[in-house]
Write a structure and sequence with these properties.
The complex is a heterodimer of chains A (113) and B (234). Chain A is built from 4 helices and no strands. Chain A is mainly α and 113 residues long. Chain A has 2 domains: 63 residues; 30 residues. In chain A, α1 runs antiparallel to α2. Chain B has 234 residues and is mainly alpha-helical. Chain B has a single domain, classed as Four Helix Bundle (Hemerythrin (Met), subunit A). A two-stranded antiparallel sheet of chain B has the order 1-2. The longest helix of chain B has 37 residues. The chains are: A mainly alpha (113), B mainly alpha (234). At the A-B interface, α1, α2 and α3 of A face α1, α3 and α6 of B.
Chain lengths: 113, 234
């Protein structure tokens, strides 16, 4: 009795391993140069590529059922809802928070004037 | 594989196999196990995602203060740890492959290698934590007031708080992973796994790769954010 195994080739696994190491070197090298806002974009892009390689090959999602693939994508959608909506809320408010003495909040604030 | 025998009571349908009686085939059981493991991993994604979301919010608010913390991050140790984890992912994938091929000797070898890489990661992480303690960068407990950039002291403290939360939770997951790998190694020594049954190896492998992915994002976000400002004097 065997499970419907998709046994990965050693060459494939080693190639992914090498690609991940190269990408790590690349992201460390790029971080050394000042590219302004592009620094974080490139760093995250490389991280997404690395994570995708791990998910697709090492975790074998390419050989799973469509239902499992749908679950994986749904997880990413939920994650992006949480991060993007939280981030967009905070980043579009013009907060100018200044620490206040406690007595200010306790009754001497603008509302009490 | 023999046809399914209707079982009496709660015993597995076939003695000596690992097919639960509520599954028709081993393939169906494997699909269900994989789906269940991914469901768990998605809860883990959202668990770490909460910390990544707060990182995004505070980085947006205190961009310069966060970038200044790169002065205190050891990129060499962080990068080494990234490589160590990538190597452990390769050996984990090779361990699953060895189990699929019923190669007990290779399975044990690759499980041990994965554990060695995992332990090496934790040791390096321990050295980094020690450096943070010596430099007084433990928020709230052992904080020297960030003398190089006193104007960023309050906001950099938030980054270090996130640093210890995120790397600490990640390290805890590594410790749990090492425990799970020890269990696999004991089972492998008892010759439990082979081409017909390697589900625990595959599932714990998924967990291990997930922990690797968390680090793939932590490394650039925590270590490399302000690296291009060339603040490092050490």
């Amino acid at each position: 009795m065997t499970v419907h195994a998709h046994i990965p080739k050693v060459g494939t696994l080693v190639a992914v391993w090498a690609a991940l190491l190269v990408a790590t070197g690349l992201t460390s090298t790029v971080a050394y140069f000042d590219l302004g806002w592009l620094n974080i974009v490139i760093a995250l892009l490389i991280a997404v590529v690395k994570a995708s390689l791990v998910v697709w090959i090492f975790m074998g999602v390419r050989h799973t059922t469509n239902l499992t693939k749908l679950f994986v994508v749904a997880g990413l959608v939920w994650l992006s809802i949480m991060v993007l909506i939280t981030y967009s809320d905070y980043s579009t408010r013009s907060w100018n928070y200044q620490p206040q003495p406690w007595s200010h909040a306790a009754g001497n604030g603008p509302a009490a004037k | 594989m023999a046809d399914i025998v209707v079982s009496e009571g709660h015993e597995p349908a076939l003695e000596g196999t690992h097919l639960k009686h509520h599954f028709a085939t081993a393939a169906q059981q494997m699909d269900a196990d994989t789906l269940g493991m991914w469901t768990f991993l998605i809860t883990e994604v959202l668990f770490f995602g909460g910390m990544f979301a707060s990182y995004a919010v505070y980085r947006n608010l205190y961009l310069d203060a966060f970038a200044s913390t790169s002065l205190y991050m050891n990129v060499v140790l962080g990068g080494t740890n990234t490589a160590v984890l990538i190597c452990s992912s390769l050996t984990m994938a090779l361990a699953v492959r060895a189990a699929q091929l019923s190669n007990r000797k290779h399975l044990q070898l690759f499980l041990i290698l994965t554990m060695i890489f995992g332990a090496a990661f934790l040791v390096i992480k321990g050295f980094e934590y020690h450096d943070k303690w010596v430099e007084g960068l433990i928020p709230g407990i052992h904080w020297f007031g960030y003398p190089e950039f006193p104007q960023y002291a309050y906001h950099a403290e938030i980054l270090f708080f996130l640093y210890f939360c995120m790397t600490g939770m990640h390290a805890l997951h590594m410790v749990v992973g090492l425990g799970l790998l020890s269990y696999l190694l004991i089972q492998a020594r008892r010759n439990i796994f082979g081409a017909s049954y390697y589900t625990p190896v595959e599932m714990i492998g998924l967990y291990w790769h997930f922990v690797d992915i968390v680090w793939i994002f932590l490394f650039p976000l925590l270590y490399l954010i302000g690296y291009h400002l060339h603040l490092h004097h050490k």
